[in-house]
Design brief:
This protein is mainly alpha-helical. About 65% of the residues lie in helices and about 0% in strands. It is globular, with a radius of gyration of 19 Å. The protein starts with a helix and ends in a 20-residue tail after the last helix. It contains 13 helices and no strands. It has one domain.
Length: about 260
């Protein structure tokens, strides 16, 4: 929270939109699509949303998201004219240069691309690493959703896949980890913690505070490893469906297993 507030960033809004969209998929599919569509103001966080919606055959949500994006874009034209879009497209080269030339310090970012750059790797290797992570996240997300996981596993995986796929992800964007962290913690309380879950939960919880100093001062870009580990642990829960308790239960509804 302090990381986001200190930068005056909108990570709480983007986290709320992607979290709400993922959480509403079953109960309010159209409203979920509206939330995803409004996330268009940060399109790099929605790179894998089409994968999730298509794999789950969530066509109402897909259509609602598409219509929302179209209306959002139309409203911007009505308010600011087409020149705003021309300027946006013209700045594409600058956006790429910001990433490739380190105009935003790579140590401030938490993506696989940034991790390679922090370690002194070339741009090509950074893109290759990011591509592998993004493809792996897409495959894992698609596989998990095809299994129709119960509970909030789908929502947790959508949020994590979004964080893994984007090369331009800063530490304040990690506010959205609140959703997968809460879900996995609830599962551990209800069904017992599996190996590596507790330490991964702690590592991901402190990540927004420690990721930047570790990367910039110690050249230890550990954020992608923590995010990928959390993603894999939730996939493991999905593979063992008996390890999943009811969705987004309140603390009073979660009954720990007997020892």
């Amino acid at each position: 929270m302090l990381t986001t507030l200190g930068h005056g960033q909108n990570a709480f809004l983007s986290a709320a939109l992607i979290g709400a969209g993922a959480g509403w998929l079953d109960r309010r599919p159209v409203l979920a699509g509206v939330a995803f569509g409004l996330l268009a103001f940060k399109p790099h966080l929605g790179l894998l949303l089409p994968v999730a919606l298509i794999a789950g055959a969530r066509w109402k949500t897909f259509a609602a998201a598409a219509v929302t994006v179209a209306l959002f874009a139309g409203a911007s034209v009505a308010a600011f004219g087409v020149e705003a879009w021309r300027g946006f497209l013209a700045n594409g080269a600058l956006a790429r240069a910001t990433l490739e030339l380190g105009l935003v310090e790579p140590g401030k970012m938490v993506s696989a691309f940034a991790a390679v750059r922090v370690l002194g790797g070339p741009t090509g290797l950074a893109y290759a690493a990011q591509g592998c992570i993004a493809v792996g996240a897409a495959l894992g997300l698609g596989w998990a959703i095809r299994k129709r996981p119960s509970g909030g596993a789908e929502a947790a995986l959508i949020v994590l896949a979004a964080s893994l796929a984007s090369p331009f992800l800063l530490d304040y964007d990690l506010a959205m980890l609140a959703f997968p962290l809460a879900w996995l913690a609830m599962q551990g309380v209800a069904n017992g913690f599996r190996p590596w879950e507790k330490i991964t939960l702690v590592a991901a919880y402190v990540l927004p505070v420690v990721a930047r100093p570790l990367a910039m001062s110690a050249h230890l870009p550990l954020a992608p490893l923590a995010l990928a580990t959390l993603f894999v642990l939730i996939l493991r829960r999905v593979a063992n469906a008996e390890d999943i308790a009811p969705a987004w239960a309140t603390p009073d509804e979660v009954v720990p297993k007997a020892a």
